[in-house]
Design a protein that fits this description.
It is a single chain. The protein has about 1050 residues and is an alpha+beta fold. Helix content is about 35%, strand content about 15%. The strands form eight sheets. The chain has a nine-stranded mixed sheet, sandwiched between helices. Strand 29, helix 29 and strand 30 form a beta-alpha-beta unit. The N and C termini lie far apart (about 110 Å). The relative contact order is 0.05. The N terminus is likely disordered.
Length: about 1050
């Protein structure tokens, strides 16, 4: 084969080359760093798809191109031309030149198509250069391709010695799944199976043409059929990517690495040979296992029907029909690619099972729940063990996990983890594309009514992964078996695992009660041992008819607590009509269960297909509920814990205390509502909390028992069935963080209704009468202030805060990035004392400056009511940094207001792909949440965008630079505008335009006017408003 690096088995590919390098034609240079070597042909047994070990390849070797012994390589060559209709040139070339390259690599001839000198409509010439044998083979294969309807690929591949070709029909809509993005799926399939697979899309339906060794072809066919039926392609995509990152080459046929010595290359060839022999041995073992399993299956199923299905299955394989059952797993692929698959599985588990908020019944906690092993992968027992099996023996075999297969198990095998498995529409993370760079929940999952079927599709255009899950068609089991609704559970009468042997679990058989040992407890004549218990049950207000319907009985059994045989009351735990556990109550109120039996819920079969289930703490509580007419009730087997366990919910396999929930997952997953009616004492409340954590609090409701009643049975005895019904009808939703009802805020709502005129809930005065008519400051709101440069927007906000500090004693945090600290202090003190800081002619206009005592008084006031938020280095502060310090200022200084001035001075590092509009929306949302949570009013100053051809008119809120969300999300929007035209009035007149007021109790839209005092920086009401304010004050006095 070729000399030189690269990938594949083609000419010059270096699949088993000596010395890597950059590829090239057959017989090219030996690679970048390789020593000059003689070109040799290794023996390749095509019938067995194996390489003869190095050292044995020198004798009578047949070269890869099928041209005979290597001593005939230099046979004389010639060139011939064949006519090819123009319409068939595409079939000869193939997609990406694949077919014509296959002709050359298979025969060793040089094949090109001359299309340059021919007129339109005339036949093209296929130019073949090679030996007579090579030319004859190419000519025959070209004729097959041109004449055969689907011979494009199969004719080329079938020419290899020992190879077979199988065609699998593929609907056109499934071709993309088989090919994969950039062809990585079909490449991975070829790498994983060792067969060659190509797709002919010239026919309907399309054909997946698989060729190679019969063993490899059979495995590849099963893989392709499963993918067409919606199976996962992740492992094949990962394998293709791994191969592309490596040295290339087909699976077990090597890839050319650069610059290795001849000794290293020989060692590499030996390793490849060993790998290939190992895979063949694995496949042979796999098919032997399949044959044993089929024989075992025939012994328990309908032989004639199964034989007929097997014949049909084999016939489909021969005919290439794609209507084949989903394939069993490829044998021991994990061993062949342990490094790749293990890393991939670990990444999947880290991504899926570390999602927060997951629960055992709704998605798992922090690691993968234990999965029932696929039936096709378990090792069948030997004939000796099978024949010697006796049901009465103490040891017996059982599946590794308990509980029937649930829909969640099938979805988890496809790496689909959901928050809830209830029927309906769900949105989850796609395990194939991970939601893209944005991590969106792009996978739409619909669970059909009944919870036994699900369909899913990823709505990302670059993924579009889709498929279905069906409990009635789980590979390896009969339709409807191991279901929650019928059929015998495959795990009935099983126990917790103790040890494993050849993937079979050797368990201690639990000593479950036998029907002949049980004495009924019910109406009519009773055994003497049952009469005391019947009287006790009736004293509890429970009829014997209810007790008998629930299987309550009496048994003479050894009590491990009392150390002797006693007549104990028996509560049988039944699933799918079979007893899987039993709970005993002794005469002295002692309780125990069957050792080693499976933990399930008591009354499980009463809740099949129920959308609502009531969970109680004891068996007598279940019977009490049935007296009140409720049969959809289950009881926990192990009672209540002492307290709620701190930390996250344990992994399902570690959560032994509540393993009964995992064992009953098939029934619980589809329930929409759980009413938790545990005892009202401390342990009962702890049990309710633990159950809700695992079942999902959004589905859980809790019962508050009447005063003096601890549980359902006491309620029945105290007030009868009506009191139980009233308690259930008034069940309240389990508290969820962030989810409330208005009744939870009744106190605040009533206080708001009864507030007086001066309450802060109506807003506090701004200090200006004209402004108070339209705008009052309400704690917890966001006010956006804008205006053209030099209009006084920052000065007005400073004056407003000064008024609030003087009149209402408010304290503020200032993040004013355009003001120097000493300049900002001057402005605020001037507004407080009413005197200029300096005695200058620029703005004081001859007024006397404040004296030092006045300045110090102003500084004390300033220090009492204002704190500064400033970045101490050259970096710009972010909104999150400002809000973090503002939270500290609330706790340390009790601030009531926060100023952020201006928006364009902040650090705005947006994530890649996020628009400024999206960024502004999220930023304002965070600011509003801070304001509402800490009851702080926030003023956010933002400049307008550049106004072209501006002539002095007032801008609007939609002119703010950045986004329309400034006006959409704020509670109040204010535009400060100073008059610049003497003809329109005083140049000191300032308009406070209230463009938006969300809270109609605190204000309304309007444009009050103020007058700016240049000497002290104060804003004052216009003379008419000031006079009216003075008259009103005089009338009040």
């Amino acid at each position: 084969s070729g000399v030189g690096g690269g990938g594949g088995v083609g000419v010059g590919g270096g699949g088993d080359a000596v010395g890597g390098g950059g590829g090239g034609a057959r017989g090219s240079a030996a690679g970048a760093n390789a020593a000059p070597l003689k070109v040799e042909f290794r023996k390749f047994d095509a019938s067995q798809q194996t390489f003869v070990p190095p050292g044995e390849a020198q004798n009578n070797s047949t070269n890869r191109f099928g041209t005979g012994p290597s001593d005939n390589v230099y046979e004389e060559t010639r060139t011939v031309k064949l006519d090819c209709p123009q319409s068939l040139v595409g079939k000869i070339i193939g997609k990406g030149g694949e077919t014509i390259k296959g002709l050359a690599s298979t025969t060793g001839a040089k094949v090109i198509i001359d299309q340059m000198s021919m007129a339109d409509g005339e036949p093209r010439k296929i130019v073949i250069t090679g030996t007579n044998t090579q030319i004859e083979k190419v000519s025959k294969m070209c004729e097959d391709i041109m004449n055969g309807p689907h011979g494009t690929v199969s004719a080329v591949q079938a020419a290899q010695p020992g190879a077979i070709v199988v065609n699998v029909e593929c609907p056109k809509e499934c071709v993309g799944r088989v090919i994969g993005r950039g062809g990585e799926t079909i490449k991975g399939i070829q790498l994983a199976t060792g067969a060659r697979a190509q797709i002919d899309q010239t026919c309907t339906p399309c054909l997946v043409i698989i060729s190679g060794d019969p063993q490899y072809v059979n495995v590849c066919q099963q893989v392709v059929v499963e993918i067409i039926n919606g199976g996962s392609v992740a492992q094949f995509n990962d394998l293709a990517r791994q191969q592309m990152m490596g040295g290339g080459g087909m699976m077990m046929m090597g890839g050319g690495g650069g610059g290795q010595s001849q000794q290293q290359q020989q060692l590499y060839q030996q390793q490849q040979y060993a790998m290939q022999q190992a895979m063949i041995a694995q496949q042979q073992q796999y098919y032997q296992q399949q044959q044993q399993q089929q024989q075992m299956f025939h012994q328990t199923a309908h032989p004639s029907q199964q034989q007929q299905q097997q014949q049909q299955f084999q016939q489909r394989n021969v005919n290439g029909n794609n209507n084949v059952p989903p394939r069993p797993p490829v044998p021991n692929q994990q061993q062949q690619y342990s490094g790749i698959n293990n890393n991939n599985n670990q990444r999947a588990e880290n991504r899926i099972y570390r999602q927060q908020g997951q629960t055992i019944v709704n998605g798992g906690a922090s690691s993968r729940p234990p999965m029932p092993p696929p039936p096709t992968q378990s090792v069948a027992p030997s004939s000796s063990s099978s024949s010697s099996y006796n049901e009465d023996e103490e040891d017996y075999s059982a599946p590794q996990n308990t509980g029937p297969t649930a829909l969640r198990d099938i979805l988890l095998e496809k790496r689909i983890v959901m928050q809830s498995y209830t029927p309906g529409q769900h949105r989850e993370m796609c395990p194939q594309c991970n939601g893209g760079s944005g991590g969106e929940r792009s996978l739409a999952v619909r669970i059909e009514p009944g919870g036994r079927q699900a369909v899913y599709v990823c709505h990302r255009a670059t993924c579009e992964w889709s498929g279905a899950a069906d409990l009635d068609f789980v590979p390896g089991k009969a339709k409807g078996s191991s279901s929650a609704q019928g059929g015998k559970s495959s795990s009935s009468n099983t126990a917790t695992n103790t040890n494993t042997n050849n993937q079979r679990t050797i368990l201690k058989k639990p000593n479950l009660p036998k029907p002949e040992d049980l004495k009924r407890v019910g109406p009519g004549a009773l055994d003497e041992s049952a009469k005391p218990w019947a009287e006790m049950i009736e004293e509890r207000g429970i009829s014997l008819e209810v007790a008998e319907r629930n299987g309550v009985a009496v048994q003479s059994v050894f009590s491990p607590i009392e150390g002797k045989h006693v007549d104990a009351l028996v509560f049988p735990y039944v699933r799918d009509g079979q007893i899987v556990n039993a709970k005993y109550r002794g005469p002295n109120k002692s309780f125990w269960q069957v050792k080693g039996a499976e933990k399930v819920l008591y009354g499980l079969d009463d809740c099949i297909d129920c959308e609502e289930i009531i969970i109680v703490e004891g068996e007598f509580d279940k019977l009490a509920f049935e007296e009140a007419g409720y049969t959809n009730v289950v009881s926990v087997p192990d009672g209540a814990p002492g307290k709620v366990k701190e930390g996250d919910v344990p992994n399902p396999e570690d959560d032994k205390k509540y393993e009964y929930l995992w064992n009953c997952r098939a029934q619980l997953d589809t329930v929409k509502r759980f009413v938790i009616a545990t005892d009202s004492d401390g342990p009962g409340k702890a049990l309710a909390e633990e159950l809700a954590r695992r079942l999902g609090k959004e589905r859980c409701f809790t019962v508050n028992w009447p005063e003096g009643c601890k549980d359902a049975n006491e309620t029945l005895q105290s007030g009868g069935v009506e009191l139980i019904r009233d308690s259930i009808s008034s069940a309240e939703g389990f508290p969820l963080r962030g989810l409330f009802k208005f009744a939870d805020f009744s106190g605040d709502i009533e206080q708001y209704f009864n507030m007086d005129a001066g309450s802060e809930l109506r807003g506090v005065s701004t200090g200006w009468r004209s402004v108070d008519k339209h705008y009052r400051v309400v704690p917890g709101e966001l006010t956006v202030v804008t205006g053209v440069p030099n209009s006084g927007k920052s000065e007005w906000v400073d004056a407003l805060m000064s008024n609030l500090a003087v009149q209402h004693g408010w304290t503020f945090a200032l993040c004013s990035l355009e003001n120097k600290v000493h300049e900002h202090a001057r402005k605020l003190v001037e507004k407080y004392v009413g005197e200029p800081w300096f005695d200058t002619t620029t703005y004081a206009k001859g007024a006397q400056r404040m004296n030092p005592q006045t300045m110090k008084r102003g500084m004390r006031w300033l220090n009492d009511h204002f704190v500064l938020i400033r970045h101490e280095d050259d970096e710009l502060p972010s909104v999150d940094w400002i809000l973090g310090l503002a939270r500290a200022a609330v706790l340390r200084h009790g601030i009531r207001g926060l100023l952020i001035d201006p928006y364009n001075e902040l650090d705005h590092k947006r994530p890649t792909g996020q628009t400024e509009t999206e960024y502004v929306s999220q930023m304002l949302t965070r600011i509003k949440r801070f304001a509402q949570h800490y009851d702080v009013h926030v003023w956010f100053v933002a400049h307008p965008r550049q106004l072209h051809n501006w002539k002095g008119e007032m801008p609007g809120l939609y002119d703010i630079s950045g986004s329309a969300h400034f006006i959409n999300k704020c509670d109040n929007g204010i535009v400060i505008h100073r008059n610049r035209d003497e003809k329109m009035g005083s140049l000191r007149e300032v308009t406070v335009n209230l463009a938006k007021v969300r809270n109609k109790v605190a204000g309304s839209i309007g444009d009050p006017k103020l007058e700016y005092n240049v000497r002290n920086g104060r804003y004052e009401d216009l003379p008419e408003d000031a006079a009216q304010n003075t008259n009103n004050n005089a009338n009040k006095q």
